[in-house]
Amino acid sequence: MRATLMYEAGDVRVETVPDSVVEQPTDALVRVTASCICGSDLHPYHSMPAGSGPARMGHEFIGVVEDVGRDVATLAEGDLVVAPFAISDGTCRFCREGLHTSCEHGGFWDGLATEGGQAELVRVPLADGTLVALPVAPDSDLVPSLLTLSDVYGTGWHAAVRGGVAPGRTVTVIGDGAVGLLAVLSARQLGAEQVILMGRHRARTDLGREFGATDVVAERGDEGVERVRELTGGHGTHVVLEAVGHRPAYEQAFGVVRPGGTISRVGVPQYSEAPVGFTSLFGGNVTLTGGPAPTRAYIEQLLPAVLDGSVQPGRVFDRTIGLDEVPDGYRAMDAREALKVLVSP
Ligand SMILES: [Zn+2]
C-alpha cells in the first residue's frame, strides 16, 4: 500500500509500505476514501530533526471498513466511518467524562509508528470506541464536511466549549486557519453575540465572515490588541479562542481578554514558557484553559447539522489532491497557497 512518510523538516514522501492488517481482536482495517493535511502537520514540517524519521503522517480520515477483529461489535465490513485524531476505548473513566484524548488505553495517530491517515489503509485500534459510522455513501458531497469532524471542526468546537462561549458572550478568535475559522462557526452556533476574527489573509477572513465573524482585525501584536479593544469599548472580550500555537498568539490572547474572561487554547503550543503573572493572567482574574480536543466526544452532537447541510464546515477545504501529490500538498499549505488540502487516495 502507499503511505505518507516524513523524513525530516521539509521532506515528505509517499512510499510503498507493508499493508496494514488487523492485528488485535479490537482492531478494524479501514480503506481510506478521504483524508487531509492538518495545520499541525506543518509543525514537524518546520522542525523535525534529521535522523528522527521517518514518521507516518495523517490523523484525519474517512474510509470503508474492510476487516474487523473478532471482538469488534459495532462495526461491520462495508461501513463508512470517520476517525477522530485520537484513539479511544470509549469506556474508561476519562472517555465517560468526555475527555477521550486522555483515554487510559488510547493514544494519538501521531504516536503510532506504522499507521497514519495519509495512506491507503489504516489499522484502527479500539475500533468500537474510536470510529463512528456515517449514514452516507463514500462519494457523498457531505464528505468534506464530515471529514472536519475528525479534527478541525471538533477542535474549534472544543475551544468554544472550554472557553464557556454562551449566548450574549463576546469572543475573539486568533488565527485564520481551518481551526480558527471553525472556532468562529462554533462560537456563533453556541450563541456568541460578537465574534472578532484576528487574521490577515483576506480569502480566509472572508470565509470567517460567512461563518459568522462580526469583525475582522488584520493587525497583529500591540496594534491588533488595540484594535480589538476599540471594538469592545476598551474592555476586550469575555472569551479568546487561540488557534495558532505560537507564543505571540498567546500574548495577543491575554492582551484582548476582558477581566474575568477565559483564554481557551487549541493551537498546539510550540512554546513551554510564557507569562502568567499580574500583567498577563493574574491581574484580571483570567482563566487559561484548552488542550487537545476530544473530537470523539462531539461527533454525535455535531453530526445532524452537517448531515442536513445547515452548517458546511467542509468549506475550509480549498484544494483536493491524490495521495501521490501529498508532498506538494504540504508545500502548498506551508506556502499558504492552500488553506486546507483534502486527499482523495
Ligand atoms: Zn478511554
UniProtKB/TrEMBL annotation:
<protein>
    <submittedName>
        <fullName>Zinc-dependent alcohol dehydrogenase family protein</fullName>
    </submittedName>
</protein>
<dbReference type="InterPro" id="IPR036291">
    <property type="entry name" value="NAD(P)-bd_dom_sf"/>
</dbReference>
<keyword id="KW-0479">Metal-binding</keyword>
<dbReference type="InterPro" id="IPR013154">
    <property type="entry name" value="ADH-like_N"/>
</dbReference>
<dbReference type="InterPro" id="IPR013149">
    <property type="entry name" value="ADH-like_C"/>
</dbReference>
<keyword id="KW-0862">Zinc</keyword>
<keyword id="KW-0560">Oxidoreductase</keyword>
<comment type="similarity">
    <text>Belongs to the zinc-containing alcohol dehydrogenase family.</text>
</comment>
<dbReference type="InterPro" id="IPR020843">
    <property type="entry name" value="ER"/>
</dbReference>
<dbReference type="InterPro" id="IPR002328">
    <property type="entry name" value="ADH_Zn_CS"/>
</dbReference>
<dbReference type="Pfam" id="PF08240">
    <property type="entry name" value="ADH_N"/>
</dbReference>
<feature type="domain" description="Enoyl reductase (ER)">
    <location>
        <begin position="10"/>
        <end position="343"/>
    </location>
</feature>
<dbReference type="Pfam" id="PF00107">
    <property type="entry name" value="ADH_zinc_N"/>
</dbReference>
<dbReference type="InterPro" id="IPR011032">
    <property type="entry name" value="GroES-like_sf"/>
</dbReference>
